[in-house]
Amino acid sequence: MSIKDDKELVELTAKEPEKGFRYLMTKYKEAVYWHIRRLVVTHEDAQDATQETFIRVFRSLSDFKGECTLRSWVYRIATNEALRLLDRYKKEERVSLDDSSSELSNLMADEFVDYNDLEAVKLQKAILSLPTKQQLAFNLRYYNDLGYDEIAGIIGSTTDGVKSSYHIAKDKIVKYMNANN
Amino acid sequence: MKEDFDFDRVGKRLPYTAPDGFLDDMENNVWETVKLEILPSKPKRNFRLWYSVTGGLVAASIALLVVFNLLPHDSSNSFEDVEKAFANLSSSDQDYLFATYQYDLFMNE
């Protein structure tokens, strides 16, 4: 089955819900899961947030007006779900959203982490030590290869703001990696 | 001087793992949740209502037939019976009935 564009996929989902649903899931579920996983760290939380993301996507797909791409829209919902979950944890711990200590401790505690790949673990620690906006800008650019303008739409920033956040994040990561070498 | 960290050394590699097939399970869970909201549910036949309405209609039809005397009946037979009964009456009784009912609107229409 080949779907030409977002509009066609939305129309397919309206006409044949299960077919449209399966197509959308095949296209986005993996990318969305890993995007969320990089933010929330543990598999269990990432799974919950991904599931909630797609429930929200399908509940409101008929309201999608095509003002941005469907991919951006799905990523925005996914990002909000991940941040909502982190926010809930931060409130329970009464610390700020940019305090990365809980994600770092999750990284050390989660059973689905390969601690043999020390450099990859360290890189994630470096990313998790960044403020949220810089984390998002870096992850969406570095791992998902998204353009600055698309990232700006997803995280509610400007293109210049995202560019700046990305470069600052990159510098901080290099410093972190060098310092912990 | 120490060399700067090179991103290519790690690339997009993540230290995270995930259980096999969990994404398919999750997809099915999501579908089970959203399908009830997305797919129009088939209207369930309400047998109680169905029987009540049908019974009511049948009762109303019978009542109408009885009230307006629409049930088929053999009028020729009943008229012959009346004729026979009238013939068996005495002449004085026959005269009385004539005198009583000759101006009856319903019997003479």
From TrEMBL, chain A:
* Protein name per the record: RNA polymerase sigma-70 factor, ECF subfamily
State the Gene Ontology BP annotations: DNA-templated transcription initiation
RNA polymerase sigma-70 region domain segment(s) = 24-90
Q: Which UniProt keywords apply?
A: Sigma factor, Transcription, Transcription regulation
Q: Which organism is it from?
A: Parabacteroides chinchillae
Q: Which Gene3D superfamilies match?
A: 1.10.1740.10, Winged helix-like DNA-binding domain superfamily/Winged helix DNA-binding domain (1.10.10.10)
Residue stretches making up the RNA polymerase sigma factor 70 region 4 type domain: 122-172
The family line of this record is: Belongs to the sigma-70 factor family. ECF subfamily.
UniProtKB/TrEMBL annotation, chain B:
Q: Which UniProt keywords apply?
A: Membrane, Transmembrane, Transmembrane helix
Membrane-spanning intervals of the chain: 49-71
Q: Which domain of life is it from?
A: Bacteria
Q: What is this protein called?
A: Uncharacterized protein
Instruction: Give the organism the record lists.
Output: Parabacteroides chinchillae
